[in-house]
Amino acid sequence: MIKTFTAVSLALVAAPLSAATLTGFASLPAETFVPGPTSGQFQNPANGVTPPYVGQQPVQGFSSVISNGAGGFLAMSDNGFGGKGNSADALLLVHDISVDFRTETGGTGAVTVNSSTPLSDPDDLVSFPIVAEQTFYPNGAGDIPVDGAIASGRLLTGADFDIESIRRDASGNFWIGEEFGPFLLHTNADFELIAPEIATPGVQSPNNPFLGAAAPNLGGSRGYEGMAINEAGDTLYTLLEGTVAGDPARTLRLSEFDIADASFTGEQWLYPLDPAGAAIGELTLVEDNVFVVIERDGGQGPSAAFKKLFLIDLDQSDADGFLKKTEIVDLLAIDDPFDLDGDGSNVFSFPFVTIESVLPLDAYTLLVANDNNFPGSAGRTAGVPDNNEFIRITLDQPIASLAPVPLPAAGWLMIAGLAGLAAMRRRG
User: Fold this and answer.
1) What is the value of pTM for the model shown?
2) Domain CATH code at residue 22
């Protein structure tokens, strides 16, 4: 159940407690492709890029990045070209990548795509029709045949699922959070589904294939943007991007999922969006019950005003039951003493509309990456599609030490006193 209380609370969000320095920078060119079925046949041109992409798939922007266990990373492409309606020929891909960060002492700043693996459903487990089962793509005029590789391999596409978060469990299998249901997907190490999609109890988006005549209670593209896993690898924590109808305004459900039982436990928390924020981008474990969350507005380039990292501790809620937050990094103002991105400035900014990956590298250091919405976003240079940038941010204090802490007893007395004064004013 959602943890809620009736007592009056104050918005207690701490100011940044640690200096953040850019200690690594790398970039993958926007127009990076891998071999595959022709894609982009239902996509509009943008920022000087004209589809389709014959015989290839764009690596796309990354919606989630995790360690590959061998010094590199697994980076999951977003669902395709921005929506169900234009992404039927876009494969759902996970890429094994290497990042050679440019640092104070060297490095090329290059990102290498070593291999790319599509998600697939070889055992016909998805409980609704997928693109691979159809004769023609469901997008456009419906007269373009589904590529033979998609059909024969039962490869999943961006019209089947909108994948946003990925985690590896203790057995080496993967869990993927998506937004159309929203659903959880369970795959083996080869990214083949090993179970039907898992629905979210009591929550359906407008793109849910089982919605029928019912009204959705979650906005479109507001599903599992964030998902974390505990250190034991047996419990997931899923964070919706949007508010479920009936929940307090501008709060997001964070739910616990038991991997062994393959079910939600019913334990939930409410994450409060900052007044300046439009959405979250990711939820990642730091240690124990401490997690880092990306929050952002909808701006890019000069219009980007709010791109931040916060810490939460599941044991620390305010008097209304909302999780307390501590701001730790302003992604629009990072110290860059060595000008690692080569822009001539010692202040680095990450002004992208969607920033969807954060990963602790050690006790002091975070990796952050953007989703470039290829080719639609142009946060670096107007009219030019964004690259996929990877940045390494080092704090001057251990990350976990910056988590929210319990409010001292005197603080609760102060809140009670303020609440009493407010009540007297209302009566007056």
Assistant:
1) 0.91
2) 2.120.10
